[in-house]
Amino acid sequence: MTTLSSLLTTLQASSLSPHNRLCSIASDAAFIRAAALSVQRPVVANERCGAWYVGADGADASAYFKSTDGHERAWKFSLRRLNLHLLRVAEANDGFLIVDSTRRGKRLPDALSTTIPIWCTSLIPVFVSDLAALGLDLSGYKLSKPLRPLWIGPDSPLPGPGPIFEDYTPVVCCSASRVEDEGERTVGYVQGAADDAENWSLGLTPSIFWRNVDALLAASDTDLPSLIATLMTEAQANKSEASKEPRQLTPTLSVTALPCPPPREKPAR
Fold first, then answer.
1. Alpha carbons 201 and 199: distance in angstroms, whole number
2. Which of 177, 180, 176, 122 is nearest to 149 (CA)?
3. What pLDDT does residue 108 have?
4. What is the spatial distance between Cα 139 and Cα 6, in angstroms, rounded to a whole number?
5. What are the 10-residue block averages of pLDDT along the chain, 269 residues in total?
6. Of the residues 3, 84, 150, 224, which has the maximum number of CB atoms within 10 A of its CB?
7. What is the predicted pLDDT for the residue at 47?
8. pLDDT at 133
9. Omega before 48 cis (within 30°)?
10. Secondary structure letter of residue 179 according to DSSP
């Protein structure tokens, strides 16, 4: 006999289907495109979730800010996930926009709300002792202005064309997914749909999703697993074929004669 609890569980599972997730990602990606055009700064995908939302053109850079580094009572500057390459991106472009998302129940992922502010604060002179203790050569990572996080999401107005800030370099933390109230939910919409992709993506990757987005969104829940399997097989075959092609390692090749070894004397008989 079907119970109310089992029925609700089934309905919840169907609402979180791979098809609904992919449609939700495509919808949220439209906001990211608009935000990038408005902010006019490089787009950084916070791996792995953020990489799904940056569209077919991909991100200008990627980063790994882990949510657990921003959990309460675990606040710290991660010495394993330095993300120092972003300093050069920020300095060259007067900041950047970093994309992530989170599941239902939160407006911002912890990586955007807490981990990145800790990172920004740790890279100003007052708080660099932990970083300096690593003994790294930081001469190529100088900032002319301190970093300052700003936050935007689908429910916030987008700023005008990216101004140059005199006192700080903006790190625009952009949460891709909208938050829906209980009585205003869109059928099939999944907040933070790309989160924990290894549990639902059936092996699909962001790049293959965006290369085949129309076919994937048009497929039914029943046909989607076989379509994804076909696309992944084709991608692997193309990768293997590409690896067989000769690759030029250098534009020129210099050839010179080696000195001949002296003739060996014949042994006396």
1. 6
2. 122
3. 93
4. 60
5. 52 76 97 94 96 94 85 66 92 96 88 91 66 73 90 88 80 94 80 94 96 97 96 89 62 61 67
6. 224
7. 94
8. 74
9. yes
10. P
Residue 56 has which token pair?
């077919």
How far apart are the C-alpha atoms of 106 and 103, rounded to whole Å?
7
Edge-to-edge strands of the sheet including 61-63?
61-63, 43-46, 96-100, 169-175, 147-152
Cα separation, 239 vs 178, whole angstroms: 36
Distances from the Cα of 150 to the Cα of 29, 147, 156, 159, 229, angstroms: 19, 10, 12, 11, 40
The residues that bridge with 27 in the sheet, in sequence order, are none
C-alpha to C-alpha distances, 2 to 5, 9, 10, 11, 65, nearest whole angstrom: 8, 11, 11, 13, 43
> What does the alpha-carbon distance between residue 21 and residue 259 come to, in Å, rounded to a whole number?
67
Question: Within 10 Å of residue 118's Cβ, how many Cβ atoms?
Answer: 18
- Contact between residue 133 and residue 10 where contact means Cβ atoms under 8 Å apart: no
Rounded CA-CA distance 230/112 in Å is 35
Per the document, the length of the chain is 269
